[in-house]
Amino acid sequence: MSNFGLGQRQDFMQPSPTMQPPPSSRPQATAPTPGTQRSVAVLGPTLRFKGELSAEEDFILQGRIEGSINHTQSVTIGTEGVVQGNIHACVVTVDGSVEGDLHGTESVVINATGRVTGNVFAPRVGIVDGALFSGRIDMSARQAGAARPSQSSETVGVPLSAEETERMLGK
User: Fold this and answer.
1) pTM for this structure?
2) N or C: which end of the chain has fewer CB within 10 A?
3) 142: helix, coil or strand?
4) Which residues form the domain of 104?
């Protein structure tokens, strides 16, 4: 399974005792070039939050949120993370538990430790063997078209070239 560009964040995070190391199947990220470093907010396992959460930087949740999450970047629900509400983000990765709909403008990945009860809306969806999922998946062209501007080289149902993929991931 592809990592959807998630490996590029690995160099910016300080691992906490509750975070699992990345699987050896993920490629290791190289050092970022100046000006490409992305900030990552980590909300620890003792966090309890009710309401709507939104931000501009990547974010990793190890605590509990009751309410919606709206982000323009990536959201990772860690192994100890619990969300009761909908998540809207560019990339959504679930290693913990979510009761609500997942809306990814680029992708949604439910890893082996992930548990999701709700619907998934994203142009690219990955569910790793061992994950628990109950809901439906919508990968329609309508959702994909809303996620990114249409480009002349893109055609629905046609795989992207390596160059197009790197350009979309911002490499």
Assistant:
1) 0.63
2) C
3) helix
4) 38-148
